[in-house]
Amino acid sequence: MTEYTQIHEAGNVISRLRGELGITQSVLAEKSGLDQSRISRIEKGEVSQEADIEKVLDALIGCGSEAAEQFKQYAGREWAHIQPPSFWNPERACLEITEETLEKITLFLGNEERPWPLRRQIERQRESLTRAATFLSNLKHNIAFIGDMGVGKSTAISFLFDLLVPPSMAETSINRPVLETGAGGTTICEVHIKAGPEFGLALLPMSDAELRELVGDFCAAKWSSYMKEQHDGTDAVNVSREAERAIRNMAALTRKRETVDGKIAYHDPVQDLAKSCGSEEEFRTRVLGLMNLDERSRRELWYDSSTRKHPMEWVTETFKAVNNGRLRDVPLPKSIDLLIPNFGKTFGEMDISVIDTKGVDDVAVREDLDQRLKDPRTTVVFCSRFNDAPGTSSRVLLQHMRQTFSERFDTGKVSILALPRSGEARAMKDDMGEQALTDPEGYEFKRIQVTSELTAEDSAGVPIFFFNVENDGAPDLRADIGSQLRRMRKTVESRLFDLCAAADEIIENHEAQAINAAIEEVASRLNTFLAGNRRLGARERLAHADALSTIRGVRYASTLWAATRRSGEYAGLNIHHLIGVGAARDAKLRSDVWFGALDAFLNAMKADGDLALAAKSIEQISASATASKRAFLEAAQRGGIEVYREPLSQSSAWATCAAEWGAGPGFKGRVAQRLEDWFTTQTGLKSTLEDMINSLWEKTVIAPLLRLAEESAPEAGPSSDNVITFPGRASA
Fold first, then answer.
1. pLDDT tens-digit series, residues 69-122
2. β-strand 569-570 against 573-574: which pairing, if any?
3. CA gap 102, 100 in Å, rounded
4. CA separation (Å) from 103 to 40, 112, 130, 418, 724?
5. In this predicted structure, what is the pLDDT of residue 123?
6. Beta partners for residue 504, in sequence order
7. Which residues contact 36 (CB under 8 A, 6 or more apart)?
8. For a Cys staple, 303 with which of 109, 131, 199, 260, CB 3.0–4.6 Å?
9. 3-state DSSP call for residue 336?
10. What span, in angstroms and rounded, lies between the C-alpha atoms of 528 and 725?
């Protein structure tokens, strides 16, 4: 224990272990033979003498602390291959085994006389071990809540994580949440709640371009409305409710309450401003001028105890002011970090951030939500009303994950949270038509119903939780969500144990001819399989088909109108992103049969008794294929976006589409047809994407498996007669 970080951790560990034993610093000082001031300095990380720390740890061991003995062993361990994990890391034992395995691998590879196939296998396993260990060493995780607008997501988060003002400061319990709540359309951006040094808010502002586009939408909508221009039937374009509130507050254009002839009315200064302008451009210019954008440079706000407000009261008021654009020196946020001291401590050693995503009001397959669905460090909680569970957006996004990511649902990645209101759970009926007698019984009836529906929709395995914010306790639900995170980590831990076992098996049996022969036979069979099953299936659907389908199904014409004004790249409806999704879905359809055949082939080899000694090698092939499939689908999605992004962004079709507004009913259909006509003419882009998909298939799926076959081939290497080579493919 010579480095400061180790000394500092030693102090933290000693302080924690002393607290767990329930003894004071003075008692520990007496038992260790040190002064109490010395103990205090050790716990603060200010003392670096190993002898003193050893005395304190021995004293703790004498008091019955088994963890103190474990820490002494941990502190004396050398970490040469992976970053030393925290002593409190739940998977520390697995990481210690991984470090030992990596040391064995280093020694094994240090002998150049080892058989070539085994050296290449063990090198690949070293890379996999390091990647998995890096994942488990990191204790940072996210919990992202996703749901339809107005389901009560922000309210649930506030009660679940104790983001509440004291009961004495709220008229009713439902008014206690720190996060601003309402009937939907409340939060202007994504909110991240995380631990901070003190109470505060930090925000990432919208870029100038994003803000001007949003204000441009607001002004265009108001200009059209107040100038009484013809628009699409009964639809009226507008920005979201939360965006309009913020723009009005920032420009000091909020509606004024008046009493006219004894009746309450609201006067709209935006209407007056629009009528005083000669053009929409002038109107937009004046609104931007009123917003005083140059003065809005403040990015952080911190609690000041001199205000004599309760910290949570201050956070509530400040968050509401920022969220509604009411602070003159604060810009419109793109995301807000809500910083709370000791936040997430109930999750033990994990460093937790909670993400309150923008509610789904129209299109669920959004780029921001995809980032959460793909992030391996994030568990997603789909929120829905109790009676609607699992909820519209939940169904859409679960289907999206199946069709686009090939995602499993039993790994802790996703769960469903139904949010009942008073009386809803007891209104549930069993098969006999009898109503539930208690809320838990009603929850169970609903769980059975939702589980059956999800199974029918091929989404089996998704856990279902319930939370009535007024009646149910938060600790149980926090534990359920924590179990999802642990399941994610345990999945990786299990994989890490398998990798260690596979490496140990090779190292311990490297001189046995039987295992070498079995591995070489597996390589030969894999090579033969790839020779006869190399090509990707034919295209199943065009990449833009999903984008056109989404356009035709958009609920609000305003969403599509905003997208046409941004050449298809709107946060609420990103056509480019949807083209990428379409490319990935086509790639999955085309490759599913191939991967099914590979699974059957590998299972057949596992069942072959003559190849039993190569079981770990076969598992490695299976794991590599799973990783390759994920890489292929992600690459296909990126490819679809990049092939079409520039030509589509620069196309004059967008101006034509935007001009369709005001031509009477059928705006969505006309835009979809205009874009379909454009896509139909782009035969060159279709060919380019097709060539790219086939190239990605070769590089992300076939090539890695070929390398596995070649690396496990006999000593002569890739040029051996037992290895099939292909034109244009360099040997490994």
1. 999 888 888 899 999 999 999 999 999 999 999 999 999 998 887 777 778 878
2. antiparallel
3. 5
4. 38, 16, 12, 48, 34
5. 86
6. none
7. 25, 26, 29
8. 199
9. strand
10. 10
DSSP per residue, 123-178: HHHHHHHHHHHHHHH--EEEEEEEEBTTSSHHHHHHHHTT-B--GGG-SSGGG-BS
List all residues 6 or more positions away from 571 whose beta carbon is below 8 Å from its beta carbon.
Answer: 366, 367, 368
Cα 130 to Cα 79: distance, rounded to the nearest angstrom: 13
Let me know: does 416 contact 465? Beta carbons within 8 Å.
yes
Residue 333 belongs to what H/E stretch?
strand 333-340
- In this predicted model, what pLDDT tens digit does every residue of 685-694 receive, in sequence order? 999 999 999 9
Q: What does residue 234 show for φ and ψ, rounded to 5 degrees? A: -90, -5
Distance of CA 613 to the CA centre of its chain: 39
> Integer distance in angstroms from the first to the last C-alpha of the chain?
44
What share of the chain has pLDDT > 70, as a percent? Answer: 94
In degrees and rounded to multiples of 5, residue 581 shows phi and psi of -60, -45
The neighbouring-strand residues paired with 203 are: 336
How is residue 633 written in tokens?
A: 């689908």
Whether omega before 311 lies within 30 degrees of 0, making that bond cis, reads no
Q: Which residues pair with 329 in a beta bridge?
A: none
Number of separate helices (H) and strands (E) present in the chain:
26, 13
Identify the bridge partners of residue 194 per DSSP, sorted by sequence position: 339
Please state, in angstroms and as integers, the Cα–Cα distance from residue 545 to each residue in 130, 578, 670, following that order. 40, 9, 16
715 vs 118: CA distance, rounded Å: 10
pLDDT digits (tens, 9 = 90+) for 485-544: 999 999 999 999 999 998 888 888 777 778 888 888 998 999 999 999 999 999 999 999
Q: Measuring CA to CA, which residue among 337, 300, 310 is closest to residue 179?
A: 337
603-607: list long-range contacts, CB under 8 Å, 24+ apart. Answer: 605/522, 605/525
CA–CA separation, 582 vs 685, rounded Å? Answer: 14
Nearest by Cα to 228 from 284, 262, 271: 271
Which residues in 506-658 belong to E strands, given as ranges? 569-570, 573-574
The structure tokens listed for 62 are 């004498």
The full DSSP string for 616-680 is: HHHHHHHHHHHHHHHHHHHHHHHHHHHHHHHHHHT-THHHHHHTTTTS-S-HHHHHHHHHHHHHH
Residue closest to 148 by CA, chosen among 555, 431, 435: 555
pLDDT at 669 (0 to 100): 94
Q: Which residues of 555-587 are buried (b: 16+ CB within 10 A; e: fewer)?
A: ebbbbbbbbbbbbbbbbbbbbbbbbbbbbbbbb
Which DSSP category does 709 fall into? H
Answer yes or no: is pLDDT of 443 > 80: yes
Q: Specify the length of the chain in residues.
A: 732
Distance CA 531, CA 204 (A): 52
Q: Can you tell me whether residue 703 is helix, strand or coil?
A: helix
Task: Please give the structure tokens belonging to residue 168.
Answer: 């004495």
Calpha distance 415→486 (Å, rounded): 13
- Of 164, 694, 681, residue with least CA distance to 474: 164
Under 8 Å between Cβ of 112 and 511: no
Side-chain half-sphere CA neighbours of 375 within 13 A: 17
Q: Provide the b/e sequence for 380-404 (b: ≥16 CB within 10 Å).
A: bbbbbbbeebbbebbbebbebbbbb
Three-state DSSP class for 114?
coil
